[in-house]
Automatic annotation (TrEMBL):
Pfam families: Acetyltransf_1. Keywords: Plasmid, Transferase. Residues 4-161 form the N-acetyltransferase domain. Signal peptide: none annotated. PROSITE patterns: GNAT. CDD domains: NAT_SF. This is GNAT family N-acetyltransferase. The keyword DNA-binding does not apply. GO terms for molecular function: acyltransferase activity, transferring groups other than amino-acyl groups. The keyword Transferase applies.
Length: 174
């Protein structure tokens, strides 16, 4: 039986993350040390870091990654969405097995646990299968803001119900 583990990304995961992100044709940033530094910041400072992510691993290899920018708030449709989900990618050999869906659900639970109220992302029209990506996110309860679409991308948002609405300074977006 294959064992999968799902966890927050650490600096040791930087090479595996970059290997997966390189499978996105439009992805530019192949700098492993920059990812390692950002993830070290996350290990040290948690949500005060610039970015982080979550991974599914099997046999020590990263097979799905979802990366997040903690401090990129954006106003969309009249409200602030504090967190930006940047990249989701599953290794080509492991697609269509539910890993992407599982990691998105995991990330949303993690954000709820950290009192995050909402999250946004961009689906890029230049990417292969972008209309499939729209359906993928809509299937996970995300809203496409088609009226705000640009030539390059469609914005999508998801409201999150915080798990601990009254908690303190570790919350996102305060
Ligand atoms: C999008 C992606 C992460 C989904 O990962 P996954 O582990 O295969 O996800 P799941 O198995 O949970 O769901 C698969 C479904 O995703 C949907 N999907 C979403 N975006 C897709 C895309 N760009 N290409 C193909 N399928 C996509 C399909 O409907 C697919 O359904 P199918 O298996 O019936 O064909 C994966 O296809 C991928 O890495 N694509 C390349 C990177 C990319 O385009 N990322 C941007 C997403 S906004």
């Amino acid at each position: 039986m294959v064992n999968y583990s799902t966890h927050a990304a650490t600096s040791a995961d930087a090479p595996g993350i970059v290997r997966l992100l390189a499978q996105i044709p439009t992805w530019q940033e192949s700098n492993v040390s920059r990812w390692r530094e950002d993830l070290e910041q996350y290990e040290q400072y948690g949500l005060r870091a610039r970015r982080g992510g979550w991974l599914i691993e099997s046999g020590g290899a990263a097979i799905t990654v979802l990366t997040v920018e903690w401090k990129s708030p954006r106003t969309i449709a009249g409200r602030i969405w504090p967190v930006y989900l940047e990249y989701l990618v599953t290794d080509e050999k492991h697609r269509s097995s539910g890993h992407g869906s599982r990691l998105v659900r995991y990330a949303v639970q993690e954000l709820a646990r950290r009192d995050c109220r909402g999250v946004y992302l961009k689906v890029f029209k230049g990417d292969d299968g972008w209309s499939g990506a729209l359906r993928f996110w809509e299937g996970h309860g995300w809203t496409a803001h088609s009226r705000l679409a640009t030539d390059t991308h469609v914005l999508m948002t998801k409201e999150i119900v915080p798990a601990h609405p009254a908690s303190g300074s570790s919350a996102i977006g305060r």
